[in-house]
Amino acid sequence: MRRFLMLGLVVLVCATGSTAAMAGRSGGGASARHVLLLSVDGLHQSDLTWYVDQHPSSALAKLVHRGVEFTHALTPFPSDSFPGMVGQITGGNPKTTGVYYDDTWNRRLLPADTTHCASVTPGVEVTYFEQADRDPTSLDAGQGLAGLPDSILQMTGDAASLIDPTQLPVDPLTCTPVYPHQYLQVNTIFEVARAAGLRTAWSDKHLAYEILNGPSGTGVQDLFAPEINSDAPTSGASNDWTTDNALTMQYDSYKVQAVLNEINGFDHSGTVAVGTPAIFGMNFQPSQQQRSCPPRTASPAVTSRTDRRRDRCCSARSTSSTQKWERCSTRFEPGSSRTGRSSSCPRSTASRHKHRRRSPVSPTGRSSTP
Nearest-CA neighbor of 32 among 19, 21, 16? Predict the structure, then answer.
């Protein structure tokens, strides 16, 4: 019988039952051959406690009751999916990992797509989110699969192969693009597992989560990362997967199926028998609230696709996610170098500069907090 150690947020569950759970609580060593890590965006400890109390027969309650619950875990600052996930799989805070956010300014690296580096002034916005995809409008990030979204489990497990290197910052010493895993300054639990000869897998929402590979670039053997900010449910649609709760649940269901396939001993696609990973898991996306955006300024230079993505971006971000809102607006400012196209999602210059000032650079060239 397989034994699993599951981590849901900060909840550990071991299939060996209450004995192992109590051993974990008392500091003893609960043994498990497989660890499942479940990251849930926006789910606080108090939310989990309330839900378990109100729904004692739910799946979350069963996870909590069968395992070890860490009630004093702290999120990194700033608190967001990207640095939060990095913190969970490294045990490091942003000062240690070098990762404060998925959208930061770096004064040491060179602008994306720089090919002649000798005379270029350092300084670049590092965009480790959907901007790095070969095609951020497609669920498969540009792989070119037919029959999307139903065929998405056929997406490659080599996420880095679908990243557009022209969107990545450039190392001034080597004049080569800096992939997310190269930006990370410490190793990951996936690399530790690989060094021990164990199998690893992960499912997340952007290709940029290949940062979980760690500096070696090989920590995660099967990284399934369908693009959550792509057109949903099909190419050309006016929504993305975060703008409607039903779409969000549909999107998460693909990653859930990938994990179930892995539990059953296959790769994420469910077609290749590779054995159940020793460490694997996925991220769940939270539901979203609507917010309004000022009307756009008409411009003959704006394409219909850009209009749709701009309107979607501006109208469907969580009211509690100010940084995401600012990042979204920046992407669709007139003449934005991040899209190469013009559009209009008004916000003040002061707001943009304030967002940038949140991530100055440390002496090592990585982003750091004030």
Answer: 16
Contact by Cβ (8 Å): 149, 49: no
Report field, pTM of the whole predicted structure over 0.85: no
Q: How far is residue 190 from each of residues 216, 302, 310, 316, measured CA to CA in Å?
A: 10, 43, 36, 34
Residue 307 lies in a domain: no
Range of the domain at 140: 74-290
Within a domain: residue 236? Answer: yes
Select from 309, 345, 124 the least CA-distant residue to 235: 309
pLDDT digits (tens, 9 = 90+) for 91-140: 999 999 999 999 999 999 999 999 999 999 999 999 999 999 999 999 99
* Tens digits of residue pLDDT in 310-343: 454 444 333 334 444 444 444 444 334 333 332 3
CA atoms of 5 and 36, how far apart (whole Å)? 6
Q: Which residue has the tokens 């045990």?
A: 91
Task: Note whether 325 and 103 are within 8 A (CB).
Answer: no
241-255: string of b/e by CB count within 10 Å (b at 16+)? Answer: bbbbeebbeebbebb
